[in-house]
Amino acid sequence: MIFPGEPHRSNPSRALTPAAARWGLALVVALALAACGEDTTGGQTGDDTADTADAVVSFDTLPTNPVDTSELVDTTPPGDVDDGDFGSPCTSNIDCNSGWCVEGPEGFVCTKKCDEQCPAGYDCKGVASQTDVVFLCLPRLSKLCAPCLDDLQCNGGACLELDGRKSCATACAGDGTCPGGYRCAADPGGVAGSWCVPDTGSCTCNAEADGGLRTCARESALGRCFGVEECDPLVGWSACSAREPADEVCDGEDNDCNGRVDDELDDIGGACQVSVPGVGACEGVKRCGGVDGVVCQAPTPEAESCNFQDDDCDGQTDEDFKTDGQYTSFEHCGTCNRSCASGFPGAELTQCQVGGALPQCVVVTCQSGYVKLNDFQCIPDVVNLCEACSSDDQCIGQDSYCNTLTDGTYCGKGCNATTDCPTGFSCQSVGRPKKQCLPTTGVCSCGPATQGLSRACTETVSPAGQPSYTCAGTQTCGAGGWESCALPSEQCDGFDNDCDGGIDEDYKDGQGRYNRVDNCGGCGISCLALSFTHASPVCDTSGGGAPQCGFACDAGWVDVDGLPGCECSPTSATDFPDPLGVDADCDGIDGEIDKGIFVAKTGSDSASGELDDPLRTIQAGIDKAVAL
Question: Do the beta carbons of residue 551 and residue 535 sit within 8 Å?
């Protein structure tokens, strides 16, 4: 580099820094005149301090490749050099007696004008000035591997295409004539002659770049696959790790490297079957299952279950549990999973009765101590003790008579001993085949003498359009007479245990849904047996349909993956992306959702890039990020 445009001053009062000297002046290309190269011809001469230059010649410094600098010509003038003389260090033209400061192998030095001859290590070359061409002694610099656009920038060498970029090379005469790290070889691009080129074939892969990586790609009509190359200073850049673009197949990979995984596949969407020998075959559609390859999206045939589905794919639903189209089995009476085995307290034998609009479970016989009130109820046989009566028919239970007491006629209950009677009653002979449980006081009326006496009572409900039913309870004689009938408390069993007209009302919400954690979605469905990590079971009614067992995260824990349990504990309200991919704020991604751009193979090129509106390709995501 030559600093132009400054007249010589014998006693300079200012100096430019190297940076100012390099960048504060415009660069132009030196004229390669007849004086270029090793041979020189005559040129203009004159007083060394007479002319000022207005052009700059740039001689780039050596590249970082390991070059044996001992093979460069020594351009240091012999002996001590006074400031401003030929060969003395300088930072600008005003530092030199000649008015010329040029680039040398080890920094900028003062030079001089020349005719033909220059000291060893210098060449007499022409430089354009404001008015003419000036010939100067310019240091002989190595331009090996310096970036270039044409030969003029290579100081007598050639600008060759090396490893994908243009770099300077110098002529050579065979092995041993190039610096260390270089070899004498023909130009791969066809430039005539022999040239010093890097042993590795690359000007960018050297000792300083050992282990470094650079991107690369393999491209075809199908797409462009990206990879990396690694620098080995002994052999150069490794082969590109990118795969060759190939036809897309269903494997969870982007085979053709078009930015989309498993796209445009043949035969996807065609008909298929999933079959199980001896069970059935279910029709489906071919889908790409990623790493699982092409799969048939269809249910697997199973033995028929009572679940309102065609499990074995034979075109029929629950056929093994129906007779003439109705659910008539003991376990599935009227509908699936309605068993006649339970639901009738005190019943001994029940059955699925067919004949009405729908089959229904009914009572056949009751257990000992209970009597059949109707097809749907067994009630205790003491249900109407001490109730007023006028005939035996009004007294419920086998061997229950209408008995005459001193205060009227009342129902009793057949017995063999007092132990068969409730408190306040004793087993008494009444002159009939069966003894009767009657009040120990001899009267059923409530008075001062019989306070504390209990008697049976009933409440009957007759819903519109449904069979009536009766609940049995007890009444106690108090100071004000018989107290109200105390009925059983409500149970979750599908019955109106307390005869208040509501069924299981204590276990339902205002919308009639079973919402208790121990009876969730129906009686007997308990969520308490479930166990979750950092969470507790709850009855979830948020879905709008039947409540289902769910979980609620413990304090300080969040469910991110959508699986049962809470696995993430936030450590920071702000989440910056990190090498380990830690989701610090438990929002489901490493980083901030509102600052991210999302891509999915089901996305759209016109999408916003938000989590619920992803783009279709990674390149589209990059383009959007650059545009923000």
Answer: yes
Q: State the pLDDT at residue 314.
A: 93
Residue 565 in domain: yes
Q: Please give the residue range of the domain that contains residue 606.
A: 596-627
Q: Enumerate long-range contacts of 163-171, CB under 8 Å, 24 or more apart.
A: 163/201, 163/202, 163/203, 163/204, 163/205, 163/236, 163/237, 165/203, 165/204, 167/203, 168/143, 168/144, 169/144, 169/145, 169/195, 169/196, 169/197, 170/142, 170/143, 170/144, 170/195, 170/196, 171/195, 171/196
Q: Residue 567 has which token pair? A: 């696995």
The answer to whether residue 293 sits within a structural domain is no
CB 311, CB 320: distance < 8 Å: no
Could you report the per-residue pLDDT of 528-573, keeping only the tens digit for each? Answer: 878 889 999 999 998 778 898 999 999 999 998 888 899 999 988 8
Residue 453 and residue 537 share a domain:
no
For position 121, what pLDDT does the model report?
78
Give the pLDDT confidence score for residue 381 in this predicted structure.
67
The CA-CA-CA angle for residues 524, 529, 534, to 5°, reads 140
Residue 240, both tokens? 């590109």
Whether 227 has a pLDDT exceeding 70, the answer reads yes
Pair of tokens at residue 546: 């039947």
Domain check: are 60 and 185 in the same one?
Answer: no
CA neighbor of 6 nearest in space, from 115, 120, 130: 130
Largest Cα span, the chain: 164
Return the beta strands (E) in 526-588 as ranges: 535-540, 548-553
271 vs 248: CA distance, rounded Å: 21
Q: Do 66 and 108 fall within a single domain?
A: yes
What's the pTM?
Answer: 0.40
Q: What are 174's two structure tokens?
A: 């065979």
Same domain, 465 and 526: no
One domain for residues 130 and 73: yes
315 pLDDT band (50/70/90 cuts)? very high
Last residue of a domain, one of 502, 536, 563: 502
Looking at the structure, tell me whether residues 10 and 99 fall in a common domain: yes
Q: Which residue has the tokens 């999408």?
A: 607
Q: Say if residues 105 and 69 touch (Cβ distance below 8 Å).
A: yes
Residue 511 has pLDDT above 80, yes or no: yes
Segment 261-269 long-range contacts (CB within 8 Å, at least 24 positions apart): 261/290, 261/601, 262/288, 262/290, 262/601, 263/601, 265/294, 267/294, 268/294
| 265 domain-assigned | no
18 & 120 share domain: yes
Domain boundary among 479, 502, 525: 502
Confidence of residue 429 (pLDDT cuts 50, 70, 90): very high
Cβ contact 414:398 at 8 Å: yes
Amino acid residing at 478? G
319 part of a folded domain: no
Residue 499: name the closest of 373, 317, 413, 585 by CA.
373
**Model confidence band, residue 58 (pLDDT cutoffs 50, 70, 90):** very low
Which of 246, 273, 274 shows the shortest CA–CA distance to 262? Answer: 246
- pLDDT tens-digit readout, 596-622: 888 888 888 888 888 888 888 888 888
Please count the structural domains in the chain: 5
Q: Do β-strands 182-186 and 535-540 pair in parallel, antiparallel, or remain unpaired?
A: unpaired
Q: Write down the pLDDT at residue 64.
A: 34
Please tell me whether residues 554 and 437 are part of one structural domain: no
